[in-house]
Amino acid sequence: MTETRFIPFITLSEYAPRIWITMSGCNLRCRGCFSLAKEEVGEPITVDQLVTLVGSSARELYGRGLQEVVLTGGEPALDREYLLRLLIALRRISREVVLQSNASLLTPPFLEELLAAGLDRLIVDLKALDDERHVWYTGRSNRDVLKNISYAAPRAPMVVNTLLMPGLVDGEEMVNMARLLRSLEPLDLELRINPFRADLSPEKVSRTPSDGELEELAERCRREYPRTVSSRSCLRESAGGPSRTWLTVYPDGRMERRGLQDYRSQNEKMFRG
User: Fold this and answer.
1) What confidence score (pLDDT) does residue 181 get?
2) Cis status, amide bond into 74, omega within 30 of 0
3) Which of the two ends of the chain, N or C, has the fewest CB atoms closer than 10 A to its terminal CB?
4) Per DSSP, what are the bridge partners of residue 68?
């Protein structure tokens, strides 16, 4: 356990009292990942410092309690004890706490600890169902990911995010994902299919699918698992409508409004020099 995690910023919704905490560092090396948070960037922050930053930012913008905090990254589960302590502290200031994870580290005992600490919902990124594809794309087998999803599905509300990557993860591969999720008899689960963004990817492992391709595949998956949606997660807020601007708060307390394009370019400048 470490006393701190590297935090580049937190993000506040202008749609609802909702905050995302970006926790940098990741144990996967996805070829198409464009997130700067896959590396350790930002400032080292203790749990107490982070919760104070979240609480003061929420009071300044919303003037009332938080509806939801989403822990994202990077991979928030890299430090078990830090994540558990953070979750317990956040439950004192937010109605709901959501964890977004690649699920590779969410073993059954760890998940039970998180649920006991007050975790409300999981958002899990499933990169590929075929293990060979998963290893090629992420550098790691998906065996633990699938075991952990299978354990979590009947126990916790969950969204499974996946990317439509034509020629790599598409067609029957995604239909089989839908079949798998149905077989798990989930408690409350949505399969969310997002389009791969070739324009943002560091490696051109696929192309950007058309809207028609995205919806056609979502419809095929819905026949197997009705709770399937096509989505663009970067423009969609959970339990709400689209958002194109956010408020960023840095570890030193500075706050600024950013849109999608300046968000990316500023991140590049700040964290890659």
Assistant:
1) 97
2) yes
3) C
4) 18, 96
